[in-house]
Design a protein that fits this description.
about 40% strand; five-stranded mixed beta barrel; about 20% helix; PmbA/TldD fold; 2 domains
Length: about 500
């Protein structure tokens, strides 16, 4: 039975973390960790000149994970007291002992250095210091501008989203890490109705780890008229045809194919079948490592958890592994995966590249996609071209802006994507919008058809704060920084 060590009546969270680690050590576990977390999430949603939803929630608690004779045990609680620490540590150990009874082979972890450190997202304006009145007024102004633009605009929305995440991590490896992360995002859109059809356009300040300075209210206001007019053009536009064509994809759209067809297939726990029951497996199995021609030789995908502003940027992951950067696809070849300490050991790697994350103090860390981006074209390279040059050099094709519906199979091989805004290209000129275009391809086939990549001057940080994984599902966020690309001979349809 776990016995509490002598302690003062009032202990700090750091004291509680260190007490938990000592209890775990006393029980002879191979490894143990505790995360004491406080999450504040604020979201405002306005629709049609009224504030429809406002939430400002705080969730706080701690989770303990232990490795006992090669088996995991995890337990959590919202009561951050000494007595509860003792109870939860014992419960986690008991769960590990129960898990071991049905375990086929023991879990082993790669080593990690011990860190004593503190990390905080650099921000200019604390988003929680900005009044709700100011935020609400902005959203109502945006929806009012949309609805006042033209009678054909029948619906409008705008939202703001902010998160502050405070974590204290301690482990039996000797780490004690404090982190404070800020995240901000905004978006808006409208729907035009005409001729028995309804079509929408949207604009987003893509979610990033920044403060309120990222919202840029005037940028939002300045895009209202354009977005509304494009919604009107879209609802009157012809239907997209079917056939094979050339596509030019802007970063506002391209981040999603990167996420679904490069990010998820290279999560090593998925490759090993940990997600088979829920969201599938992966075609990118380990026998393909350093051999598979994942993309054209001029295509590189790089993971970078140190990226300023990146949605997955932090000082350390939830196993105390320091943030780093590495290639997943280099010169078109699959060269690495996204790992935690467990899967890295199984792959035979000397260390984890730090992809373990949990979305709550009550969640178990698992492999999550980090910031994963497409590198820009090399300066002066044969395949490097600006967006304008790509359009000018395209005889017949389509330009896609913004994400829309998508589907992808359980192995992340066959996919279909749609765009929020699509323009016809004819003889190097944009010829107006089309609607309801989707394109279909296979992952490696698609990325090997990349003909041109834009330079670094056109790089944009796009991504998501709503990536779901696991049972029970956890939500994560990540940035997929990228530039426009052109892809040839792609099948399109309605």
């Amino acid at each position: 039975m776990v016995q509490a060590a002598p302690h003062p009546q009032h202990m700090t969270f750091t004291d509680l973390a260190q007490a938990a680690i000592q209890l775990i050590r006393n029980q002879g576990c191979e490894y143990g960790e505790i995360r004491l977390c406080t999450y504040r999430k604020q979201r405002l949603w306005a629709q049609d000149r009224s504030l429809k939803r406002l939430s400002d929630n705080v969730s706080a608690g701690f989770g303990v994970r232990v490795l006992w004779r090669g088996a995991w045990g995890f337990a959590a609680s919202h009561r951050r007291t000494t007595a509860e620490i003792v109870r939860v540590v014992q419960l986690a150990i008991d769960i590990a002992k129960g898990s071991r009874l049905s375990q086929r082979e023991p879990i082993r972890l790669v080593p990690v250095p011990a860190y004593r450190d503190r990390y905080e997202t650099p921000i200019q304006i604390d988003p929680f210091a900005v009044s709700l009145t100011e935020k609400t007024d902005l959203l109502l102004d945006l929806t009012d501008r949309f609805l006042g633009h033209d009678p054909q605009i029948k619906k409008a929305y705008a939202y703001l989203s902010f998160t502050q995440e405070n974590k204290i991590f301690a482990s039996t490896e000797g780490s004690l890490i404090e982190q404070r992360l800020y995240r901000s995002g905004a978006g808006m859109g409208c729907t035009a109705v005409a001729n028995g059809d309804a079509q929408g356009r949207k604009y987003e300040r893509s979610p990033l780890n920044l403060g309120y300075e990222h919202i840029e209210p005037e940028t939002l206001r300045n895009n209202v008229a354009r977005v509304a007019q494009e919604a009107i053009e879209k609802v009157h536009a012809p239907e997209a045809p079917s056939g094979e064509t050339t596509l030019i994809l802007k970063p506002s759209h391209l981040w999603l194919p990167i996420h679904e067809s490069v990010g998820h297939p290279t999560e090593l726990d998925r490759v090993y079948g940990y997600e088979a029951n829920f969201a599938g497996t992966s075609f990118a199995t380990t026998n393909h490592l350093n051999q598979l021609q994942y993309a054209a030789p001029w295509v590189n995908f790089k993971a970078d958890r140190t990226q300023p502003g990146g949605r997955s940027t932090a000082g350390y992951d939830d196993e105390g592994v320091k943030a780093q950067e590495w290639y997943v696809v280099k010169d078109g070849i699959l060269t690495d995966y996204l790992t935690d300490r467990e899967t890295a050991h199984r792959l035979g790697r000397p260390e984890s590249n730090g992809c373990a994350f949990a979305d709550s103090w009550a969640s178990v860390p698992m492999v999550r996609i980090p910031n994963l981006g497409l590198e820009p074209g090399e300066p002066g390279g044969d395949r490097t071209a600006t967006l304008a040059a790509m359009i000018a050099d395209t005889k017949d094709g389509y330009l896609i802006d913004g994400d829309d519906t998508f589907s992808i199979d359980q192995q992340r091989r066959n996919f279909q994507f749609g765009g929020n805004g699509v323009w016809r290209i004819k003889n190097g000129q944009l010829q107006g919008m089309v609607k309801n275009l989707t394109y279909q391809s296979m992952t490696t086939e698609f990325w090997n058809k990349v003909e041109a990549i834009a330079p670094a001057s056109e790089l944009e940080q796009r991504g998501t704060d709503m990536c779901g994984k696991g049972e029970p599902m956890q939500i994560a966020q990540m940035t997929h920084a990228c530039v426009p690309i052109r892809v040839g001979n792609i099948t399109i349809g309605r």
